[in-house]
Design brief:
heterodimer, A: Spore Coat Polysaccharide Biosynthesis Protein SpsA, Chain A, nine-stranded mixed sheet, two-stranded parallel sheet, 12% strand, B: mainly alpha, elongated
Chain lengths: 426, 235
């Protein structure tokens, strides 16, 4: 089996291949069960839709020890160009399991961007290594907007169950939309397409050794593309199904990684969002690719009980973050009978904005702040479950849309409270 | 006769007068030093308070959780004010010791010497207490949030116990630094701590045998993971 090259050798190796048009990137870490299928599908997609374009498939692997490199080599044929790169996985990457399951994902993506830049590629598409619903059409959907319509960033638009992606629906999507004024429905999807110039722009950033690169690289890419005024669009990919996850990740750790990354980016891009009010739609290309989304369920009693305990026991923490009115509203919410339980959008949005402000002002240890959000988030989930229990996915989507409007409506409050010194620091 | 009169009466009287004069001048010197200390201390307090306020020291203390402790304990209205008071106190204390030293008696010299030797221990004890308060608050909050997120019902009790034990260790360390009842405190602490742990272990073993067994079984013979809560995906 051919040895994988190191990240430092990318430039020399790729330049030796001559200019490329397309790069397909597949980061991996112990994905022996699924990576072969993903690469085969990529080969099929390239052959079907881009047969006349010079393309390179790159597997960026973080020292897998389960046979992933062998599985990649097994599907390597003479007719395609496949490069295996070993990205540096440092001890810090093993400290906490990232929510996306790929330790050092930032480093993996960086090697892919370096490959695209070295090969002067017009477009790069990245696909998760554990996705089992990938089809050849995904590659067409993610690459075509860049090649034909000159877009720089193509975000995925999945068909998802109403209870799939509750953190995305309650915080990440509405907050990102309200902040930057662009409606990208899946701002932290694992699949995306980017232009060569955006890959070069990403490489210039200082993010690569930070926590954002380790845990929030997906939202970083979306935010950077939007905040830097690159041309963005969305494309239908149908349902996204992952390989069954072996272990459940602690909710508070996911909150720290995901919401912490969004809050971090708020600080980085405060000049980009402070003058934005309202939001604009982002072009949605293609048509739904079909496939049934994976069903998901919410245990209402469990989530409600978590919320009630949080409001009762975490009061000393909340009192330092939220206003007395918000505390009173939370307490009356928690005291309501289960069949009347509802966490109003207005309350939820003001809590998130106040949490973002407390995070920015470092009112207390940032990890404590983010972890204390877990019971409140479960309260939102319980409320959402009760309101949409008997409704369709479309009804749930309308609820999310209403929530987004409240985020936008309350944004002047966030702007007015955001410290002036920070707003003028650059 | 005149020489004897001078030797017996005037000599001692002159000596007494000289001594009294020296004492009065020492006393005056002490009073001047103390007054100077009070004035300089007051000025230093105003400067420290103003500078720290301008540097937003209170906000930093609030973030660290010290602000609330200072406020609730009634020590001072803010951390900046407390820092100013501490500086003032130190200056006044120094002036007082310098004044006592100026009296020049063996007793005051001894007192001053001992005080200066003790001062580093006192400051170290204060530092230990401050660090202890910060650590206890941080760990208490960590335990509280983790326990709530794990749906443990006695979350507040666990957090309170964490804070309590850290503070007990802190106070013992501070008193040890001050040299107050060193052996007694360590022995008392060891007995109390050991007793509490033993009592808790017995209570857990007897009162919650099934729970203890289940916990140990789940720890050492974990069953395959079954998600009984829900199947929602967060991200």
């Amino acid at each position: 089996m051919a040895e994988a090259i190191l990240a430092e050798q990318i430039e020399e190796t790729v330049e030796g291949l001559g200019p490329l048009e397309l790069v397909v990137g597949i980061p991996s870490y112990n994905n022996v069960a699924t990576i072969g299928r993903v690469i085969k599908t990529a080969q099929a997609g390239l052959a079907s839709y881009f047969g006349n374009r010079k393309a390179l498939i790159v597997n960026s692997d973080g020292d897998s020890n389960d046979g992933t490199p062998e599985a990649v080599e097994k599907v390597h044929t003479d007719s395609d160009m496949l490069l295996r790169v070993r990205y540096p996985l440092e001890p810090v990457h093993h400290l906490t399991t990232p929510y996306h399951g790929l330790p050092g994902k930032g480093s993996a993506l960086r090697t892919l961007f370096q490959t695209a830049k070295a090969g002067q590629a017009r477009a790069l598409v990245v696909v998760d290594p554990d996705v089992t619903s990938v089809t050849p059409e995904w590659f067409k959907s993610l690459l075509e907007p860049i090649l034909s319509l000159d877009f720089d960033f193509v975000a995925p638009y999945y068909q998802r169950h109403k209870y799939d992606g509750t953190m995305t629906n309650s915080v990440v999507y509405p907050l990102t939309r309200a902040l930057y004024g662009r409606r990208i429905r899946q701002p932290i999807g694992g699949e995306f397409g980017i232009s060569g110039r955006l890959a070069s722009h990403f490489l210039k950033d200082q993010v690569w050794n930070s926590d954002v690169a380790r845990y929030g690289i997906d939202i970083w890419m979306t935010t950077t593309a939007v905040a830097s005024n690159f041309k963005v669009c969305q494309t239908h990919l149908g349902a996204k199904i992952h390989e069954a996850e072996e272990q459940e990740l602690d909710l508070s750790a996911v909150l720290v990684q995901v919401v912490g990354s969004v809050f971090n980016l708020m600080e980085t891009h405060d000049l980009a969002w402070r003058n934005v009010l309202g939001s604009l739609p982002v072009p949605l290309l293609g048509s739904p690719l079909g496939g049934e989304p994976e069903p998901a369920s919410i245990n209402f009693q469990h989530t409600l009980a978590s919320f009630q305990q949080g409001v009762r026991d975490l009061l000393p923490v909340y009192e330092r973050v939220f206003s007395p009115k918000e505390i009173r509203d939370l307490q009356s919410c928690a005291a309501a009978p289960p069949d009347q339980f509802s966490l109003e959008d207005e309350l939820w949005v003001s809590l998130i904005y106040d949490l973002a402000l407390a995070y920015h002002r470092r009112v207390m240890d940032r990890e404590h702040l983010l972890k204390s959000l877990a019971p409140l988030y479960l309260g939102w989930v319980a409320s959402f479950a009760r309101q949409t229990e008997s409704g369709s996915d479309a009804l749930a989507e309308r609820r999310i849309e209403r929530l987004c409007l409240v985020y936008e409506q309350f944004k002047p409050y966030l702007i007015s409270q955001w410290p002036q010194a920070s707003r003028e620091k650059r | 006769m005149e020489g004897m009169w001078t030797k017996i009466v005037w000599g001692p009287l002159r000596q007494l007068g000289e001594q009294a004069l020296a004492s009065v001048s020492s006393l005056l010197g002490m009073l001047v030093l103390v007054l100077l200390g009070l004035v300089v201390g007051w000025l230093a307090k105003q400067v420290v308070y103003g500078v720290l306020r301008a540097l937003r020291f209170d906000r930093l203390c609030d973030r660290l959780g010290v602000g609330m402790v200072v406020e609730r304990s009634g020590l001072a209205r803010s951390c900046s004010y407390l820092a100013g008071e501490i500086v003032r106190g130190l200056i006044v204390l120094t002036a007082l010791l310098a004044g006592l030293n100026a009296l020049g008696t063996p007793l005051t010299r001894n007192l001053v010497e001992k005080t200066f030797l003790y001062l580093p221990h006192f400051l170290a004890a204060v530092l230990i207490l401050i660090v202890g308060v910060l650590v206890s608050r941080f760990l208490g909050r960590s335990v509280l949030i983790a326990a709530v997120n794990e749906n443990l019902r006695p979350a507040r009790l666990l957090a309170g116990l964490t804070r309590f034990f850290v503070m007990v260790v802190t106070v013992v360390a501070a008193l040890d630094e001050l040299g107050i009842g060193r052996t007694t405190i360590i022995v008392t602490f060891a007995i109390t701590f050991g007793g509490l742990v033993t009592a808790a272990a017995i209570a857990f073993g007897l009162g919650a045998r099934d729970l203890a067994r289940d916990l140990l079984v789940s720890q050492f013979h974990p069953k395959p993971h079954v998600d009984a809560k829900d199947t929602m995906r967060h991200v």
